[in-house]
Amino acid sequence: MESQPAQECLMQMFLPIEPACFVEWLGTSPSQLGVVMVDEAHERTLHTDILFGLIKDVARFRPELKVLVASATMDTARFSTFFDDAPVFRIPGRRFPVDIFYTKAPEADYLEACVVSVLQIHVTQPPGDILVFLTGQEEIEAACEMLQDRCRRLGSKIRELLVLPIYANLPSDMQARIFQPTPPGARKVVVATNIAETSLTIEGIIYVLDPGFCKQKSYNPRTGMESLTVTPCSKRRSNSEAGAGRVAAGKCFRLYTAWAYQHELEETTVPEIQRTSLGNVVLLLKSLGIHDLMHFDFLDPPPYETLLLALEQLYALGALNHLGELTTSGRKMAELPVDPMLSKMILASEKYSCSEEILTVAAMLSVNNSIFYRPKDKVVHADNARVNFFLPGGDHLVLLNVYTQWAESGYSSQWCYENFVQFRSMRRARDVREQLEGLLERVEVGLSSCQGDYIRVRKAITAGYFYHTARLTRSGYRTVKQQQTVFIHPNSSLFEQQPRWLLYHELVLTTKEFMRQVLEIESSWLLEVAPHYYKAKELEDPHAKKMPKKIGKTREELG
Length: 559
Prior knowledge:
- The chain is an alpha/beta fold.
- The chain has helices spanning 6-13, 19-28, 46-61, 76-82, 110-124, 137-154, 172-175, 195-198, 235-242, 258-263, 279-287, 304-316, 328-335, 340-351, 355-365, 379-387, 395-408, 413-418, 423-439, 454-465, 523-529, 555-558, and strands at residues 35-38, 66-69, 98-102, 129-133, 161-166, 187-192, 205-210, 213-220, 225-232, 246-254, 469-473, 476-479, 485-488, 501-509, 513-520.
- Helix 5 crosses helix 6 (137-154), helix 11 packs across helix 12 and helix 15 crosses helix 19 (423-439).
- It is an enzyme of class 3 (hydrolase).
- Its EC number is 3.6.4.13.
């Protein structure tokens, strides 16, 4: 028998894979595993936590299976206990000494403190680049603007300071600037989100500024609303940031007191599984044959209320029967690697003969918050470009229009640049769409197009998102079931209109309870797609006759 090439043998032995993909693969091929290594275990993402429970379960029946859990900053005792008192090995790595400095008193304005500290380092400290951590795009752009303005005012009194932002929605070419060598005689300051905490190593970083805050997503199962709030970082994250991007010894300036670090910061960040919607998790575990979710061995169990809501939603979507077992639709939904409401929408596209369009909508929704780019120096041009994509009916059709025009351009990066659209996000949407299209046969959905009949597209979307509906009342929009006051997001194509009935992709708490990605619907569609969930009486509007004539009208009624 011919011997296999060494590279082929190596690939059989070593297969790098994302946790989300590995969880699905583990459910079908556990016998093929010899060794599992989970790196960056401290990040505690949703799928990593599920993976820990599944691996532990498999290992009980496969005593020869080797499991390696690796991290530079994780709670080793906690993980060792979870994996039945597994041994702990400490392997010395390349570490550089870091001097930590704290403020003597709390900072009233950490953004201002960051800007002042950067300039102080630039003027007083030896050569070396600076890395500043902030919570998000808005803060980063504000800090960069403040730094550039003050550098302009100081003029030739100081050496050149290159101010470079980096955050997820920044175009790739602008992100790449942080890796370019700093010109002789100048200093570079990189202002970043926590994308630079563990994901990047930036040559030349000597100084790190840590304000002690980060943005964290949380989920309220009572309202079904996610919120992204600025909260104090954990000690573990602060320690990770102190060494971020570092290839030499350096200094970390923490813009909070040593007392605050010792007494106010939590030891670790709350795991994602305890602060997110669990519809995907429940559907996945059910499809893997794990039915007793309350006793599944989670490293940190999710809140009971969140788990219960996920079961209720899946029952309403027809994915589970009254016994909590997967239905035929549920098994098909589990085959699609998207949120249950999106997978239900894709299945419904078969009935409404619009799977081509629905695949595009589903793919675009997976990257919906990073489609458009809005540079500060071209705000008017960017806003006008976005408005040019608006179509009657709502934001889902806008996303469909963007993708369709991009496809007609030959998937051009130049087209994206001219229309202030993120090329990287569009490529990701195309990848998702191709993946979903490849799964259609498995879930018994044929390829079909609505040929411009967007009513069919809107009905298919409603079939997946009937759980997320709101109607206009005399006091504004309220969700149909919870009667919660909500608002159309300012970025929506429907922001300046007031359709009587809406559905939304997600509900997010920022300055208000905003509906993101909204679509105009008819109340009769809710009875058509979800008669088990809605009754005609609850969809009647007692205030309709008392409303001003132009408020609460459908687009068809307005003409």
